[in-house]
Specification:
Elements (H helix, E strand, L loop, with lengths): L2 H4 L24 H19 L4 E2 L2 E2 L1 E4 L4 E4 L2 E3 L4 H22 L2 H5 L2 H18 L2 H9 L4 H30 L1 H9 L6 H21 L2 H6 L1 H4 L1 H4 L6 E4 L1 H4 L11 H8 L23 H4 L20 H13 L6 E4 L1 H6 L7 H22 L4 E7 L6 E3 L3 E12 L5 E2 L1 E4 L5 E6 L3 E2 L3 E12 L7 E10 L2 E11 L4
Antiparallel strand pairs: 1-2, 3-4, 4-5, 6-7, 8-10, 9-10, 10-15, 11-14, 12-16, 13-15, 16-17
Helix pairs in contact: 3-18, 5-7, 7-8, 7-9
Bound molecules: iron/sulfur cluster (2 copies).
């Protein structure tokens, strides 16, 4: 037998295999889009104004990693408050896990800066300059004409300007608005590092929004990657109702449909109608939900990691359902269990329990924040120093003190040792703790030799301000045992 007859048919090479498929999501505007639009503008206004707003003379938000100084809603956090940051971070991680388990990726679609900037700002500019899906495809496929050069230059120039604005805002969150202003107005030679940082951030943002785009959500973002371990069948996601939608197929013409077809012919999304006698599910396989998807997936294939819950496919499908006279919600916010049982989403015991844990965590954090001391004192015995004998039968130890005033006002301070016969002699005196600053000093503590009964005596040093004890520090005193 001829061997070539049994050989498997030769596969044609796929020219796009292994290459990125550039996406051209179609424009859709519905009720969710309008709500997301409002939320986006509020969040954008908060993001851009955050570093420039002040409270009690302090920036509302500052994340100065270089000087280890953080301001959150006008409250200053110091390295001494690290335990608060650690608990806050822990609560935040638990919050993310629990919130995602219950409500899915609501954050990605409604509040993530990447989605907001990409879909509500940069994509809109692109559509404004280059047109909707087909116009953009045609433009990209066309040779470099004057029109194409002008459109592309306008688009990428605006992208660069916006990236520059985002970069400046981002830097203002790190170094503060005054330092940013100094970079802008002072001699550039004095701010080379700052200028380099602005350029670097601008380059990163420009690359992300002009080229990387949906890959940030589908490949790079760790939150997106972790979805599979956080979600379960009861998590609320944007879900296609396959019970109602399948078997999908082109729609049957029915009474009154002709008028709708004629009216629809002039509309934004013409209906793909065909005659058929087969009974079908509600999905008419128009693929509009796929065409509007900014990550290029088909939600009808089930929940996928690439879905950023942007709600565009809901709007697209609701529009189609309105046109074919079927109820909205073939694609909707629902859980897999909700779709399977066809019961409306309801609050479960698990959700209540998770929410209570969240409230508890946030309450603990809030209590620790409110009850933290205004003055934070660290007192350590000077390293490498032993005790000294002093006149009058006294023994002295040398101590180093660091005092952080977390308030926005100067505070008078003094120290007192709670021990019978003890004295305190300042070497580097501290009488005042300047506002929002760290002060260092040194003092000797003297104890009567006859009162020392062990090598290491426990002491409590009280820090006083305006006659009130504002902090207590435990330390030890080394001396000869009598
Ligand atoms: S938009 Fe709705 S009807 Fe059209 S393909 Fe998607 S799920 Fe089916
Ligand atoms: S499937 Fe696509 S369009 Fe629908 S919510 Fe997810 S990312 Fe958005």
């Amino acid at each position: 037998m001829n061997a070539t007859l049994n050989a498997p048919p030769e596969k044609k090479p796929n020219p796009t295999f292994g290459k990125r498929e550039w996406l051209y999501p179609r424009v859709v505007k519905g009720r969710y889009y309008r709500w997301r639009n409002i939320v986006s503008w509020v969040l954008l206004a908060a993001l851009f104004s955050g570093p420039f707003l002040t409270y009690n003379g302090q920036p509302l938000f500052l994340f100065n990693i270089l000087e280890r100084k953080f301001n959150f809603f006008g409250v200053t956090f110091w390295p001494q408050d690290f335990y608060l940051v650690a608990i806050g971070m822990l609560a935040f991680i638990v919050f993310i896990v629990l919130f995602t388990t219950i409500y899915g990726r609501v954050f990605c679609g409604w509040a993530c800066p990447q989605t907001i900037f990409m879909e509500m700002v940069f994509r809109r500019i692109e559509i404004w300059i280059e047109g909707d899906q087909n116009a953009r495809k045609r433009l990209d496929a066309s040779p470099w004409t004057t029109e194409k050069i002008l459109k592309k230059s306008a688009k990428y120039s605006l992208f660069f300007l916006l990236s520059f604005a985002i970069s400046n805002t981002f830097l203002a969150y790190i170094i503060g608005k005054d330092a940013l202003l100094a970079i802008m107005t002072d001699n550039p030679a004095n701010h080379l590092a700052g200028l380099m940082a602005i350029l670097l951030f601008t380059g990163v943002f420009y690359t992300v929004y002009a080229h990387v785009r949906e890959y940030v959500c589908t490949t790079i973002c760790p939150y997106g990657r972790l979805q599979s371990v956080m979600l379960d069948k009861n998590s609320v996601l944007i879900t296609y109702d396959e019970v109602r939608g399948e078997p999908r197929g082109k729609m049957q013409r029915e009474k009154g449909m002709e008028q709708r077809i004629q009216a629809d012919a002039k509309s934004f999304h013409p209906l793909p109608l065909a005659t058929s006698s087969q009974p079908k599910g509600d999905c008419i396989d128009c693929k509009l939900c796929v065409q509007v998807c900014p990550t290029g997936i088909d939600i009808r294939n089930g929940n996928q990691m690439e879905c950023v819950n942007c709600t565009l496919c809901i709007d697209a499908c609701d529009d189609i359902m309105d046109k074919i006279g079927r109820p909205r919600g073939l694609i909707r916010y629902d859980s897999l269990e909700g779709v399977r049982t066809q019961k409306p989403w309801r609050i479960t015991t698990r959700m209540v329990a998770y929410s209570l844990i969240l409230v508890l965590l946030m309450s603990v954090w809030g209590f620790l924040l409110v009850s933290r001391s205004d003055l934070d004192t660290t007192i350590l015995r000077a390293p490498g120093q032993l005790f000294q004998r002093e006149p009058g039968g006294m023994i002295s130890d040398l101590y180093l003190v660091e005092l952080v005033n977390k308030t926005h006002k100067d505070k008078p301070v003094s120290f007192r040792v709670a021990y019978p016969g003890a004295k305190l002699r300042m070497v580097q005196p501290i009488t005042k703790a300047p506002a929002d600053d760290l002060t260092k000093g040194m003092f000797f503590i003297l104890l009567p030799e006859k009162s020392i009964h062990q090598n290491s005596t426990k002491l409590v040093i009280e820090v006083l301000s305006d006659g009130e004890v504002v902090d207590k520090v435990n330390t030890t005193f080394l001396g000869p045992v009598q």
